[in-house]
Design goal:
- The longest helix has 20 residues.
- The protein has 10 helices and 7 strands.
- The two termini are 31 Å apart.
- Strands 1, 2, 3, 4, 5, 6 and 7 form a 7-stranded mixed β-sheet that branches.
- Helix content is 41%, strand content 12%.
- By secondary structure, it is an alpha/beta fold.
- Bound molecules: guanosine-5',3'-tetraphosphate.
- Guanosine-5',3'-tetraphosphate binds next to helix 5.
């Protein structure tokens, strides 16, 4: 799904999330473990304010485990609990309820002291398109999607779905926009498939991806495309891959678009293994280190 984000759409998305904030105890901020910075909404702190939050690094099965650990420490340093999850396979999901309880312990203790009867934790998922929101909801509710029906004070279309006995989840996630002003962020969103019908030039994207692999995972690049040395010259780099893989035009010349498509497809389908496209240390030059 490709969403065109115009100012009006952003304002509406923000309004919708802000409205629902009142209904929940905790927000699950879903991001892509491969690009934890680039897959966050740029205004998330402003939108969520002080509402308790659990950051979920989804698609952790595709990210470099060591780098994911660095991100979890990074978020801890920012005051956020975070968990690495794989919504598709349902890994790491059990901890979501437990950690949410820990985050909300004080609030629930306070309510209890006031004589309020214990109730299930109310939660909502927010994230940019393709971060895995629907997959996570489906996994959390398993097969037995038990809708608790309309709850007073909730918009009629809102439904709460039960996640075990201890949690209720809003059935519609909050969809927020990515940081698309930054070209590098755009590249990372495209490589990870967050932006499907990319408006970026395919060859530019492949160059970016190959340079990234050369810098961060040179051995994997050499092995996959049988380089003894990775050439500095981009034409030589594309020619080598194109010849090796038969990405040729009718006239037996290397077809650079085909090479670009191949490289991007192979990265997305994990032919280079688990890849993380950014590390917390990269943020020293970014405005996010707040
Ligand atoms: P959204 O609601 O936030 O827009 O995302 P959605 O759940 O539709 O997930 C987007 C794609 O990401 C889906 O692939 C989904 O299967 C995949 N996905 C979600 N969570 C995980 C995860 O933890 N690990 C992995 N490996 N994949 C995950 P899809 O429908 O097949 O779309 P696509 O493959 O064409 O991108």
């Amino acid at each position: 799904m490709t969403i065109q984000w115009f100012p009006g759409h952003m304002a509406k998305a923000r309004r919708e999330v802000t409205e629902k904030l009142k209904l929940v105890d905790i927000i699950f901020e879903l991001i892509d473990a491969r690009i934890p910075y680039s897959s966050r909404n740029p205004m998330i702190d402003e939108i969520i304010h002080h509402k308790p939050r659990l950051v979920l690094l989804n698609k952790a099965d595709m990210a470099d485990q060591e780098v994911t650990k660095e991100w979890i420490s990074f978020f801890a340093g920012q005051g956020f609990r975070s968990l690495a999850v794989n919504a598709q396979a349902g890994e790491g999901l059990k901890e979501i309820v437990q950690v949410s309880k820990e985050i909300l312990q004080e609030k629930f203790d306070r309510l209890k002291a006031k004589g309020v009867k214990p109730r299930a934790i109310r939660a909502m998922i927010v994230g940019i398109p393709n971060s895995g929101k629907s997959t996570l909801i489906n996994r959390l509710v398993k097969r037995n999607i038990a809708k608790t029906g309309n709850t007073p004070g909730v918009t009629r279309s809102q439904q709460w779905i039960k996640v075990g006995k201890e949690m209720e989840l809003l059935d519609t996630p909050g969809i927020l926009w990515p940081k698309f002003e930054d070209q590098e962020v755009g590249m990372k969103l495209a490589i990870t498939g967050a932006i499907k019908d990319t408006l970026l030039n395919l060859q530019d994207l492949a160059v970016y991806a190959l340079k990234f692999l050369e810098r961060e995972y040179p051995e994997r690049l050499k092995e996959r495309y049988k380089f003894s040395e990775i050439p500095d010259d981009l034409v030589a780099l594309f020619d080598h891959i194109g010849t090796l893989r038969g990405c040729l035009t009718g006239g037996a010349m290397v077809d650079y678009d085909k090479v670009a498509e191949l490289v991007i497809r192979e990265i997305r389908s994990q032919k280079f293994g688990r890849l993380s496209f950014e590390r917390p240390i990269d943020l020293q030059t970014k405005e996010m280190n707040r």
